[in-house]
């Protein structure tokens, strides 16, 4: 029996056996705390004592394995490798099930797996919902054969893509070691590093550029293809007409290098399959490489024209963005045409941290979908959103910013006033000087509209803070002004302008998403913010992909800027509202209507919502009893995020 009671101890032993490692590195590698590492080391030493070895901590270096004269290192290593860990979480079970279905030559029986993993059949059935949803993206199906089990069915190309994605995308943290182990077990004597060298050498000679990640994915895909061919799962027929000459020449050279793993030649269909994989993942750097049945230049122009027309953001003059997006579209259309799936590991972060760019992309692609004869996956849309987001940030300073407005009060002459203004603007160019008035004019005012006051004379503060300065401001006075300049005024201003008690709701009883949409749109229409076309567009946007932002916060909205006037309905649902078929539940909902005239503020409004997500403010927000409570909690969240 293996001496290691759980898998991390075996992996920890292997890691320290290979090299001396500090505690912090071990904690990071295994995604646990330093305290857990110390506990594991103590337990490991108790086990290793029987083998005449121990783990020693050396200050400044880390943990290293000390082997005694009688230590049986081979027995220890074999014991570590014999550990067969049980999947303890749903995520781990789903990954194991995916690997089983795709790599086992025989149908899989859930009853046997339930007994092997010590879980109930009901637990596995819940995991199978996620497994089936994963396979549907490729598309693959699970077929049940009575008394035999379940097996995967679908096109050979889809099965290869699915296996490659599982090995490439689903390994991280402590799971990475298990993924690598499963991949080695599946590939057998196929050397992944050797395949990567064959590919890289060939690409260097033919000047074909791939990112590091794309090269790794292609290497795994080639290894999986070799494995599938060797087990009689060959692609029999595959024809293409839009692969350029360079890729064709490179593929034939690569095939020669890979043939030794098969012992015979690859079929013509397999060579074509490799050409598609290369074309779908290469980085297009020149317009001379632009080929295909879809005109990527026209699609890029259509996207930019739509964004200008609907959102009032003009990206058409950004030549770098135009080039990058066009080149990306060429490879993307190759992928979607030949169903070469590309999982996007950044997708959830894109939707969560760049929601405005994500929505602009969804809206633009929905508008021009008739010009594209393929269905784009959310993963591909995520990559497009990165390009659009970069363009928006580069050209529009990442969104709307409200700069501080200042009132200058001085009884000096006009020349001195202008000198003070120039001095302040030189120090703080973001300041907007709204007015310059005398002390008497100031005293006649009931209230101040500007954000703060800079005065060369002593005055009584009204409703805004004031800083007294000399005609030549001292460093301390400049510092005082700087503190007021640095105060975030954008988000509080947006909150005051677009949120209102008349559009604040608390839903305490049961309510469906559809009923909420209808009620919210009726309120917006009654108050004159939207027309009849808003509600259908709201439903269409939600049907594309969920508007759940994260932390139980959802931001339903229409495609594009369709509102007559900008407004936000704030809905708090302490009991939650079912938001999608993925089990998402929304507790704080911001029904968003933005008009084209407020396009500059749109990015700022989205950033405001992201503040609530970053500050994990959901629980505090749903405890609000009224709009005033909501405002106070929102303002506090803004202050915390600065």
What does it look like?
With 642 residues, the protein is α/β, with parallel strands linked by helices. It has six domains: 7-81, Winged helix-like DNA-binding domain superfamily/Winged helix DNA-binding domain (Arc Repressor Mutant, subunit A, Orthogonal Bundle), CATH 1.10.10; 90-185, Arc Repressor Mutant, subunit A; 189-283; 288-396, PRD domain (PTS-regulatory domain, PRD, Orthogonal Bundle); 405-487, Response regulator (Rossmann fold); 492-641, Mannitol-specific EII, Chain A (3-Layer(aba) Sandwich). Helices cover 54% and strands 11% of the residues. The protein contains 27 helices and 13 strands. The chain has a five-stranded mixed sheet. Strands 6-5-7-8 form a four-stranded parallel sheet. Helix 1 (7-18) crosses helix 3 (34-48) and helix 1 (7-18) packs across helix 4 (73-81). It is globular.
CATH homologous superfamily grouping of the largest domain? Mannitol-specific EII, Chain A
Query: Ends: how far apart?
Result: 56 Å
Tally of contiguous helical segments: 27
Largest sheet: 5 strands, mixed
Helicity level, as a percent range? 40-55%
Uncertain spans, ≥5 residues at pLDDT below 50?
A: none
CATH class of the largest domain: Alpha Beta
Radius of gyration: 31 Å
**Order of strands in the sheet with the most strands?**
9-12-13-11-10
Let me know the number of strands.
Answer: 13
> Can you tell me the overall shape?
globular
Question: What fraction of residues sit in β-strands?
Answer: 5-15%
Total domain modules = 6
Question: Which topology of the largest domain does CATH recognise?
Answer: Mannitol-specific EII, Chain A
CATH architecture of the largest domain: 3-Layer(aba) Sandwich
Structural class: alpha/beta
Average pLDDT, rounded to a whole number, is 85
Oligomer: single chain
């Amino acid at each position: 029996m293996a001496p290691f009671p759980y898998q991390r101890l075996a992996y920890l032993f292997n890691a320290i056996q290979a090299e001396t490692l500090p505690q912090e590195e071990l904690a990071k590698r295994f995604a646990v705390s330093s305290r857990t590492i110390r506990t594991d080391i103590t337990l490991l030493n108790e086990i290793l004592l029987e083998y005449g070895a121990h783990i020693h901590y050396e200050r400044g270096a880390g943990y290293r394995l000390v082997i005694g004269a009688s230590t049986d290192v081979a027995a220890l290593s074999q014991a570590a490798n014999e550990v067969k860990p049980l999947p303890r979480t749903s995520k781990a079970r789903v990954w194991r099930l995916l690997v089983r279905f795709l790599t086992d030559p025989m149908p899989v029986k859930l009853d046997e797996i339930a007994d092997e993993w010590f879980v109930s059949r009901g637990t596995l059935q819940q995991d199978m919902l996620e497994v089936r949803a994963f396979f549907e993206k490729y598309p693959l199906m699970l077929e049940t054969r009575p008394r035999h089990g379940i097996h995967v069915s679908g096109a050979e190309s889809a099965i290869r893509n699915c296996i490659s994605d599982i090995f490439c995308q689903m390994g991280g943290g402590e799971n990475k070691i298990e993924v690598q182990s499963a991949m080695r077990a599946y590939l057998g004597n196929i050397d992944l590093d050797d395949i990567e060298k064959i590919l890289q050498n060939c690409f260097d000679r033919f000047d074909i550029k791939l990112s590091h990640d794309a090269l790794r994915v292609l290497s795994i895909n080639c290894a999986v293809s070799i494995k599938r061919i060797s087990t009689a799962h060959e692609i029999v027929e595959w024809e293409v007409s839009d692969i350029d000459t360079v890729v064709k020449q490179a593929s034939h050279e690569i095939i020669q290098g890979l043939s030794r793993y098969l012992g015979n030649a690859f079929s013509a269909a397999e060579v074509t399959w490799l050409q598609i994989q290369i074309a779908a993942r290469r980085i297009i750097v020149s317009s001379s490489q632009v080929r295909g049945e879809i005109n990527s230049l026209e699609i890029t122009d259509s996207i930019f024209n739509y964004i200008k027309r609907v959102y009032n953001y003009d990206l058409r003059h950004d030549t770098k963005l135009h080039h990058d997006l066009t080149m990306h579209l060429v490879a993307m259309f190759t992928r979607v045409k030949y169903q070469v799936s590309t999982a996007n590991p950044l997708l959830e972060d894109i939707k969560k941290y760049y929601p405005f760019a994500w929505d602009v992309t969804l809206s633009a692609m929905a508008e021009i979908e008739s010009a594209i004869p393929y269905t784009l996956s959310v993963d591909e849309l995520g990559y497009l959103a990165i390009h659009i987001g970069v363009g928006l940030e580069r050209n529009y300073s990442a969104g709307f910013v409200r700069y501080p407005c200042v009132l200058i009060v001085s009884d000096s002459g006009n020349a001195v006033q202008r000198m003070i203004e120039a001095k302040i603007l030189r120090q703080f160019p973001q300041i907007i000087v709204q007015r310059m008035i005398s002390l008497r004019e100031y005293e006649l005012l009931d209230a101040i509209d500007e954000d703060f006051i800079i005065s060369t004379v002593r005055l009584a503060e009204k409703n805004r803070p004031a800083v007294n300065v000399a005609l030549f401001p001292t460093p301390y006075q400049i510092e005082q002004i700087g503190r007021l300049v640095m105060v975030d005024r954008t988000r509080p201003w947006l909150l005051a302008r677009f949120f209102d008690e008349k559009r604040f709701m608390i839903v305490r009883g049961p309510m469906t998403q559809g009923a909420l949409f209808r009620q919210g749109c009726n309120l917006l229409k009654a108050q004159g913010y939207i027309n009849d076309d808003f509600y259908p567009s709201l439903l269409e946007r939600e049907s594309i992909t969920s508007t759940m932002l994260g932390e139980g916060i959802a931001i339903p909205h229409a495609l594009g800027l369709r509102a007559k006037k900008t407004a936000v309905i704030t809905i708090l649902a302490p009991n939650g509202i079912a938001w999608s078929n993925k089990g998402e539940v929304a507790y704080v909902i911001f029904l968003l209507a933005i008009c084209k005239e407020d396009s500059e503020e749109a990015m700022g409004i989205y950033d405001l919502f992201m503040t609530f997500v970053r500050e994990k403010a959901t629980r505090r927000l749903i405890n609000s009893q009224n709009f005033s409570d909501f405002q106070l909690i929102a303002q506090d969240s803004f202050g915390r995020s600065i």
